[in-house]
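[job 0412] stage=complex_fold ligand=zinc ion status=START
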Amino acid sequence: MQITKNIHALKIPFKVKISPTITADRFVYVYIITGKKIWLIDSGVAGSKKNIFDYIESIKKNPKDIESIFLTHSHPDHIGAAKSIKEYCNCKIYIHPSEKNWVEDVNLQYSQRPVPGFNELVEGSVKVDNVVNDGDIIKLDGNLSLKVFHTPGHSNGSVSYLLEKDGALFCGDAILSSGQMPIFDDLARCIDSVKKLSDISNVDILLSAWDIPYEANHIQKIMSDSINFSKKIDETIRKFTEKENQSAPMEFCKQIISELNLPVQMANPLTSRSFQSVLKQNDKS
Ligand SMILES: [Zn+2]
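[job 0412] stage=complex_fold status=DONE, emitting structure tokens
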């Protein structure tokens, strides 16, 4: 789907086995920026090379012209196909320094964040060529540049990229959409990051990895809904820990999911890990 003259959005569906009995249908958006060359925001899951290349050919461009992949973070559905795309195009891989080692050593990532289905979602480790830091401006070609915003919370090294010419903000998973599966490492930092993004004045289109594209008049509401949802999760977890904090992590997760009126399938190892991170923060404070 063409978004602006230079941006295309590609929705890639995939399945992930989140427990021995539950297979979830998920999707992720990869964004294709076209100019004198081609640049990708994220790479999708393992096997997404074909989806991406087919799309690029359908708009009469050559996949060999992919110059770089700008990763929003290192989770499997974002880095999954980076290996085969890099091998074919010899493109450069960019990511925030704090997640570089999880891209270059996916076994390390899996050992530290053992998410279900990891090995089916990721093709393998891939070398990072450049790191991006908050405030960096990366020139793509004559009139296209990406500005980098460090937006941690969903993960430690999550970044968002602003294509300045179009006011297009690629936020990866940094904005926890209200009612979506809550996956994060640090809920308080999630809220701070969304506030930071909402302070950018010239955003005309919001391009998330997990949601449809939103135009300017919807963006502030998406962000305020996200902040309210995050606060509600935090309050719910605090309420339950005050009442009883002895339940096993998965039982605790089921209680929180139920209290938030979210679908029961959202009680899974990913959300359980997220809720436990709030308990750990509470212990520290
Ligand atoms: Zn993620």
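The chain has a mean pLDDT of 93.
[job 0412] exit 0
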